[in-house]
Design a protein that fits this description.
Number of strands: 11
Mean pLDDT: 92
Strand content: 15-25%
Order of helices and strands: EEEEEEHHEHEHHEHEHHHEH
Strand order of the largest sheet: 2-3-6-7-8-9-10-11
Oligomer: single chain
Shape: globular
Radius of gyration: 19 Å
Helix content: 25-40%
Distance between the termini: 41 Å
Low-confidence stretches: 268-275
Length: about 280
């Protein structure tokens, strides 16, 4: 399916962040051709005027105003919260690279999250940052499941990108997100990657909005043995699975000296930040 491309002028690329541990975010694009079936960012469509399905359009942001680097001194900035800044169209438009060319001069803590090995194109810039962390999302080792869920880089390419980043002295995070109950092999992913991962981030599958019935139907069709468990978790609000998994991950990571952050209770962390409490 062709992607609708549109260039839009914006006043500023920098936005204040509601994310628990981030001060500012930069989203060089609106929309994302990766088309993840579980994408929480699909809510952005209602702010754009697009009637097309999420994953079938991309707005390319153009901004003549330089990023205010002074505002970022000692702060954290994240690329990106509602798009993948290394989606396939970055290869043509190079918006993310243009942002990095400015941020490399900032005295800030920069983090990048992506599902694409296209990030390796910018190794020359990434190596120049003083405080940089790069996270690649991996929630399966099963390439068939990955293809069913998104159109981003294959799992092996993401893992290879993480290894390459680590070999170039760049802080690496494997963002295990979203974890699908009973489907994501958390231990398997950790064990095959831990030699080149600095930290793991864990985030649960949170079904809301239009994609909830899509995922539940997918599980019913492809993993019928888990249909009842998904019904309990996502229709009846049973939180036992996530509590038990959090305990297992905590025990395993602690016993093996693995650094990690658990974002299972994301909404609670956001609320704590709003209340001015440390996260």
């Amino acid at each position: 399916m062709p992607i609708l491309e549109h260039e839009v002028a914006v006043r500023d690329l920098l936005s204040k962040s509601n994310l628990p541990t981030v001060d500012y975010v930069i989203n060089p694009y609106v929309g994302c051709p990766h088309g993840c079936k579980y994408c929480y960012a699909s809510f952005m469509k209602r702010f754009t005027g697009h009637t097309e399905d999420w994953g079938t359009f991309i707005d390319v942001k153009r901004c003549s105003k330089p990023i205010n680097l002074k505002k970022l001194e000692g702060k954290s900035v994240f690329l990106s919260s509602v798009t993948d800044c290394y989606n396939a169209y970055e290869e043509t438009y190079r918006c993310t690279r243009a942002v990095l060319e400015q941020l490399v001069q900032a005295d800030a803590y920069v983090s990048i999250s992506t599902k694409s090995d296209l990030i390796l194109r910018d190794l020359d810039l990434l190596r120049q940052f003083r405080h940089l962390t790069v996270a690649l999302s991996v929630n399966t080792l099963d390439e068939n499941f990955r293809r069913d869920m998104d159109s981003a880089s294959p799992v092996a390419d993401r893992l290879r990108a993480l290894r390459t980043l680590r070999e170039n002295g760049i802080g690496t995070v494997l963002f295990m997100s979203p974890i699908f109950p009973y489907i994501t092999d958390c231990r398997g992913i950790i064990d095959c990657s831990r030699e080149y991962i600095g930290e793991y981030w864990f985030e649960n599958l949170n079904l809301r909005g239009a994609y909830r019935p899509v995922i539940l139907e997918y599980v019913r069709t492809h993993y019928p043995q888990y249909e009842e468990q998904y019904r309990r978790i996502y229709c009846e609000g049973d939180g036992y699975y996530w509590r038990a998994l959090a305990d297992k991950l905590n025990a395993y990571c602690s016993a093996n000296g693995i650094r990690y952050k658990n974002y299972f209770h994301h909404s609670a962390l956001v609320q704590r930040k709003k209340e001015g409490n440390p996260v």
